[in-house]
Amino acid sequence: NCHVMHPMYENYYHAAHRLAAECADCHLPHENVFAYYVEKGRQGMHDVYVFTTGTTPELIRANEHSQEIIQQNCIRCHEETVAIMLESTMEFDRFCFDSHRSVAHGERGISILPYQDKEKGK
Asked: How many other C-beta atoms lie within 10 A of the C-beta of residue 114?
């Protein structure tokens, strides 16, 4: 299953987060050990299913559930940085990675897969 993730790993390897985080630091929940292993099992079973059925998508993107986990981990690791934003009256209606997309996985141009906005037409 690692081969289909090669472009993402390659981008991560050349990005800023490589020195501070591993895949699980961003992509698995950290509120407790139970949540961590349940999600690790859920994601693992999903991977087993798509690889054995040959239904691996051509463009791999985080689903809504995974995006929420990633967002919570951005806040967990960068709590001091985002504290002012979280306490303000400003709407907090975007994911951190909407504005900082290149931080974890490098610049869009490094990937062999084209970047696609979440909404059609963008």
From this structure: 8
